[in-house]
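INFO batch 0412 | record 1 of 1 | parsing
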Amino acid sequence: MLARLFTEEQVIFRDAYRKFLAQEIVPRMEGWREQGRVDREAFTAAGKHGFLMVWPQEKHGGMGDTDFRFEQVIIEETAYARCADWFNTLHSRLVGPYLTRFGTEAQQDEFLPKCTSGEYILAIAMTEPDAGSDLAGMRSRAKKNGDDWVINGQKTYISNGINADLVIVAAKTGADDKPHEMTLFLVEQSMEGFERGRNLKKMGLKAQDTSELFFNNVRVPASHVLGEPGKGFYYLMEGLAEERLIGACQYLAAGQLSFDLTLEFVKERNIFGRKLADFQNSQFKLAELRTELDIAQTFIDQCVAAQNVGQLTAVDAAKAKFHTSELQVKAAAMGVQLHGGAGYMDEYAISRQYTDAAISPIYAGTSEVMKLIISRDFLKDDYEAFNTRNF
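INFO prediction complete | emitting tokens
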């Protein structure tokens, strides 16, 4: 595999974070899966060691380094340690940056230190029972009432929903003929009328709290409006490319783990007097997967480099999300097959790799939606990329 480009500081950071996971997180994951929620102490421990939000300025508790490769390290190591159902990156790199992109200085001063330390846990509420990838179908509404706003509606499938202290809530604020006019609000858990529903039971990612949220005449002061009223839809779109890159880094690391678990198993498993790894079928299956993982890693690392200089496109992010999520499923499914009956047993890690992978081609944009985004690009009348490629 081609050498990956990380700085010496990032290599040291990876080693320290790997040790942190082994000592503080991995031993507790099974208990958290049983209770259906990661304890808040996971966030505060990560904050204490400087692993929760690395990009905010030092005055807000961070390192002040926005290089995405630091988050890439965290994502990869978390997934490889089988801790992917702790959604620390959703807090740190998916939701947190909304505060610096669109928040006022006062909002940043109030919330960023609490988020960096882990005192506040973040979530973002977009999805509704009748609105997933199509945000224009959202029904939650917010109406102006004096200097305040009043929110009514419900959200579902909200990651970190049970634990969250601060939720970025998207709600319609325009007329019915303006489906894309929505506003983002900073809703704190103490606000009257804000209620949490069920901690939803899921096929995989058992420790990740995923919940329903209800807003019954929640009064939000003007100080908690995030960005310009009516521009929320465009703010959400702005963050989608990075969100999909975050997912791609995780899916690929999980696929790598499935490969390694399977390789270890076939090298030890005996069948018909031979190691399973000695059979050509095993060798060919693993060779195919090894090649696909390495090629995907090269593309993802290029996407990270593009993100760092502000050049990651929505189309390339969609390609990254689509390909790696499907590859994660493929790697886990192949692993289960080569494990045989053992692959169906939860005592073997590959079993949970399989159930955890099932959601990846769905959330943060389904594979079908990713294909639409990709195809619209090459079907454009002014598609010029064809003429610039060397075949």
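INFO post-check: The chain is about 50% helix and 15% strand.
INFO record closed
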